[in-house]
From TrEMBL, chain A:
Domain annotation FAD/NAD(P)-binding: ranges: 4-297
InterPro entries, per database record: FAD/NAD-bd_sf (IPR036188), FAD/NAD-binding_dom (IPR023753), Metab_Enz_Cyan_OpOx_G3PDH (IPR051691)
Main enzyme class: oxidoreductase
EC number(s) on file: 1.5.3.1
GO MF terms, alphabetically ordered: sarcosine oxidase activity
Keyword Oxidoreductase: yes
Organism (species): Caloramator australicus RC3
Pfam families: Pyr_redox_2 (PF07992)
Keywords: Oxidoreductase
Top-level taxonomy: Bacteria, Bacillati, Bacillota, Clostridia, Eubacteriales
UniProt keyword NAD, yes or no: no
Protein known as: Sarcosine oxidase alpha subunit
Automatic annotation (TrEMBL), chain B:
SUPFAM superfamilies: CPE0013-like
UniProt name for this protein: Conserved protein
Gene3D superfamilies for the chain: CPE0013-like
Organism placement in taxonomy: Bacteria, Bacillati, Bacillota, Clostridia, Eubacteriales
Pfam families attached to this UniProt entry: DUF1667 (PF07892)
Origin superkingdom: Bacteria
InterPro entries in UniProt: CPE0013-like_sf, DUF1667
Organism: Caloramator australicus RC3
Length: 420, 119
């Protein structure tokens, strides 16, 4: 089968990209989703706080997803569920399978990668001990509790204080479990302040910074974990070990963009984000293959995924219609001095619609700094920040006008200390 | 009485010190929203509950729900008990009221996802 646009993944990124491509004149679109329904991970995020930027109201995950699903239905965009993509080639040939069609092949004019991310597991951490039941990633536990109707344990320790870990601490507590503590390796949490207060402090759940789990006990089922304090190199300090009795360990220790297909298509991957390098239209190193959402870099807020994915859909439509400029006029972006990465990575100013939203993360917690953007020695943007943290994505919007006047071949984003 | 709390209005997360002595005095806040937040937290802390109820005959076993208004924080577990008594029949649309005026709080428990009939 031949298609103008195939979107891999029917979560918030894929849905937004599809909607925007359709609104920009592309009719032949197919979304491939491996789950039984559209919406992606939002379907299990039953807590609220989604949509403040896009809809100016607080929605739960399923409500946020449904708004986009309804729009996809209204626009008559075709999708296939329970469909797993097995192969993506440099030539945009896709091999997928599902229970109804069996194995099928699609030749796509353009592709949007919207596969999202997956959780780091126990294997990525090398926690010593036996392999009993009761060790879950926080997201897997969330799916069991919120969608499948299984309670995963009664006495819980959570390793990692990212938002999913915090949300699950409250969720397990509401469902009657005792959450003994949340253990965080770093001296700070990457979770939102709101979640630390409303998910932990509301229920008197202790949050231990500079601590980790050094051993998992139990043979059939988890019987407890050993926790220990860590030094400033994040290594456990001998003599600080403490046994904590529990039957469940939830891991909320980071997310990894799911880029097997991207790698298979030989698309260039940024080793810092583990996602594809993208340009101003969210196009990857292969012309006509676009990427958006958590498969590019892990976001804190779905609202930003949506905005970024609208752009990918717009870009794909431009490409299919042959309206994308291929002029050699371009420059790269780079993070320096406290800016760990910047997305997008390459800008062709004439393809920019009105402005580019640059998303970035800092490498540590800093106070009283200026976030500046420089073209050579020329400062194009400066914003005072009282507080920046790796857990809060920063963004800088630069207009087409400013971007067209960039003279160098590199736009540098960096932090600068403010003299007080 | 002195209480310490974290303001949640922005990523700064100001550590607030709240003195309650007839009058409520807030310090540690860098903006007005911190003071307002602390006063509300002391006098009448409110929360939204999000949870699930069991579904009969649906395309999945659980329906996600929320309180359509903030409810007093002290009633969270009592309201959870009420919600856990309920079993609902598919189909359900987003916004359907599952429990009206739960425990007299003025808040309804409403559906936040769409459940179709299993067939």
């Amino acid at each position: 089968m031949e298609r103008d646009l195939v979107i891999i993944g029917g979560g918030p990124a894929g849905l937004a990209a599809a909607i925007e491509a359709k609104k920009n004149g592309i009719d032949d679109i197919l979304i491939l989703e491996r789950d039984k329904r559209l919406g992606g991970i939002l379907q299990q995020c039953i807590h609220n706080g989604f949509g403040l930027h896009v809809f100016k109201e607080q929605l739960t995950g399923p409500e946020y997803a449904q708004r986009f699903i309804d729009e996809v239905e209204k626009l008559g965009i075709e999708y296939k569920l329970e469909s797993m993509v097995l192969h993506l080639g440099e030539d945009k040939k896709i091999i997928a399978l599902n229970p109804k069609d069996g194995l099928f092949e699609i030749e796509a004019k353009a592709v949007v990668l919207a596969m999202g991310c997956r959780e780091r597991t126990r294997g990525a951490l090398n926690i010593p001990g036996s392999r009993p039941a009761g060790v879950f990633t926080a997201g897997a536990a969330q799916r069991f509790v919120n969608m499948e109707g299984y309670m995963v344990g009664k006495k819980v320790v959570i390793l990692g204080s990212g938002d999913i870990g915090l949300i699950m601490a409250r969720r397990m507590t509401l469902e009657g479990a005792e959450v003994k503590m949340v253990v965080e390796l770093m001296p700070y949490s990457t979770g939102l302040k709101r979640n630390i207060v409303q998910c932990l402090e509301d229920f008197d759940i202790p949050l231990l910074f500079n601590h980790t789990v050094t051993k998992i006990h139990g043979k059939e089922r988890v019987e407890g974990v050993t926790i220990a304090k860590v030094d400033d190199k994040r290594q456990p300090i001998e003599g600080t070990e403490l046994f904590v009795e529990c039957d469940t360990l939830l891991l909320s220790v980071g997310l990894i963009p799911e880029n097997e297909l991207t790698r298979e298509a030989k698309i260039e991957i940024n080793p810092v984000t583990n996602g594809a390098y993208v340009n101003e239209l969210m196009e990857t190193s292969i012309e006509g293959i676009f990427a958006c959402g958590n498969v590019v870099h892990v976001h804190d807020l779905v609202d930003f995924v949506t905005q970024e994915s609208f752009l990918a859909g717009y870009g794909a439509a431009k490409y299919i219609k042959g309206e994308k400029s291929n002029s050699a006029n371009k420059f790269k972006t780079k993070g320096l001095n406290g800016i760990r990465y910047v997305v997008p990575n390459i800008i062709h100013p004439e393809n920019v619609k009105d402005a580019v939203n640059f998303y970035m993360r800092v490498s540590d917690v800093y106070h009283n700094v200026n976030l500046i953007v420089k073209d050579g020695d020329k400062v194009l943007y400066k914003s005072r920040k009282n507080h920046v943290s790796p857990g809060e994505m920063e963004n800088v919007k630069l207009s087409k006008d400013i971007l067209q006047k960039v003279e160098g071949d590199e736009l540098v984003f960096e932090l600068e200390e403010v003299a007080i | 009485m002195i209480k310490n709390m974290t303001c949640i209005n922005c990523p700064l997360g100001c550590q607030l010190k709240v003195e309650v002595d007839g009058e409520i005095k807030v310090s540690g806040n860098k903006c007005k929203r911190g003071e307002e937040y602390a006063k509300n937290e002391i006098t009448n802390p409110l929360r939204i509950i999000t949870t699930t109820v069991k579904v009969e005959g649906g395309d999945r076993p659980l329906l996600s729900v929320k309180t359509d208004k903030e409810i007093p924080k002290s009633k969270i577990f009592d309201i959870m008990k009420e919600i856990n008594k309920v079993k609902i029949n598919a189909p359900v649309e987003i916004g359907d009221i599952i429990i009206e005026n739960v425990l007299g709080t003025g808040a309804n428990i409403v559906a936040t996802s769409k459940i179709q009939r299993a067939d």
